[in-house]
Amino acid sequence: MAETREQRREEIDAILDRKPGTRETRDEADRYTVVGAASRATFGNWLTPIEEHFVCHRNPIPTGDVDSWSITLADGEREIDLQLADIIDDRPTVAVAHTMECAGNGRGQHDPETGSVQWGCEAVGTAFWTGTPVQSVLRAAGVDTTDQWLTAIGADSTDAETFARSIPLSKAREDCILAYGMNGQPLPDEHGHPVRLVVPGWYGVNSVKWLSELRVMDGMVREGTLDRPGTHARWQQEDYRIHAADEEPVQNATVETTGTWAQLESGETAPYTFDETVMSIIGQPTGEDTPTQGTIEIRGVAWAGDERAERVEVSTDDGTSWHDAELFGPDYAGAWRLFRYDWDADPGEHTLLSRASDERGHTQPERIGTPEEGFDALENDRYPWNEGGYAANAYRPNGLTVEITD
Q1: In which element (H, E) is residue 352 found?
Q2: What is the pLDDT at residue 2?
């Protein structure tokens, strides 16, 4: 374990050197370190530079290159070894805009505190991911089903534990890609080099890095459904599910809906974190400077997973009044929108807030609830406190205070 922690420390230091626009966040209990955007300025722009994009993983980064890497595709009757180099040469290449957000983004805003990395709002970024559509690979391999599940397995798996995530085949065929490029550059090591799955609009845990296997299955991965050593259902059936403290989620083969918010509203036990909930962040001003009075542009980003961010409101007086912001800039499914609002600022201290609504009418709640409220918190304009601190999207914790000078 000591050697693993030392290796992890060296790895994180190297990532920070490559990413000057990030800073580290620690989970002191597990000695688990990640990096996220260092400044709100990241969220004042549509495209997130690789140098500012968050990174989250637990095991050491696997090594490999495009020429030697292969992906095993299994459908229950056969296994095919697909060479990554052949996929790149023979199958079409596309670019997909995707806002990738860690499902634990906002975990540090829970009170009482939950376990693991205490993210604020820094674990999110939008990039152009270049790769091959999963649909093209499946079709070429003769996989024609749409009502099953696709389980992705990462090469960072160990003999003790497999990192596996399952998504519906319908989603995989719709817009997912096997990505080997990011923002016009080869995929960086920490982002999954040489290939990762990218699932647009869904939480980052679904976009399995260092992809080594794809398995077509009748349901989601559960203990006993993979012929592999150790455990292999933790990351699907235990972690990354929204539930009360000390609750042990039941392992399900399927769900009625992959909408994270829809699962919360339905009262489903321990919802899964699939698509991202509606969210917004102000990126300008940053709160790190002291603007002078006059017209100040408030600018930020808003997103809503599989849905579209349809409206953003801004408050400059700590929520006493709200004003509609303008949505502008690139408009891609699965990626955030820029918003702006011109504010006639007077001298003094001001608290700025933003709240977004999606096309189904879901609006960011004001705060995170208490453990006692459970899912009833949604009825009181609160996001449900949950043991893993997942999918939080309350707007007030992401507000900022600015000092305007005359």
Answers
A1: strand 348-358
A2: 43
Identify the structural domains of the chain with CATH numbers, from first to last. 59-257 (3.90.420.10), 279-404 (2.60.40.650)
For residue 173, give the H/E element and its range: helix 169-175
What is the rounded average pLDDT of the residues 36-49?
96
Residues 6+ apart with CB under 8 A from 32: 26, 58, 116, 117
Say what the pLDDT of residue 30 is: 56
Q: What is the mean pLDDT of residues 342-362?
A: 96
Q: Output the six-digit token pair for 397.
A: 């914790």
| Long-range contacts from 308-312, C-beta under 8 angstroms, 24+ separation | 308/333, 308/358, 308/359, 309/278, 309/280, 309/336, 309/337, 309/356, 309/357, 309/358, 310/357, 310/358, 310/359, 311/356, 311/357, 312/280, 312/337, 312/339, 312/354, 312/355, 312/356, 312/357
pLDDT in tens, 108-164: 999 999 888 899 999 999 999 999 999 999 999 999 888 999 999 999 999 899 999
Cα Rg for the chain, rounded, in angstroms? 21
- The tokens of 331 are what? 């408009």
> Are the C-beta atoms of residues 216 and 145 closer than 8 Å to each other?
yes
Average pLDDT over residues 309-318: 98
- At 1, the pLDDT band (50, 70, 90 cuts) reads very low
Q: Where are the beta strands (DSSP E) in 183-291?
A: 185-186, 196-198, 211-217, 279-284
User: Rounded to two decimals, what is the model's pTM?
Assistant: 0.95
Cis peptide before 112 (omega within 30 of 0): yes
Distance, in Å, from the CA atom of 390 to the CA atom of 392, rounded to the nearest integer, reads: 6
pLDDT higher than 90, residue 52 = yes
382-383-387 Cα angle (round to 5): 135
CB 101, CB 123: distance < 8 Å = yes
For β-strands 323-324 and 211-217, DSSP reports them as: unpaired
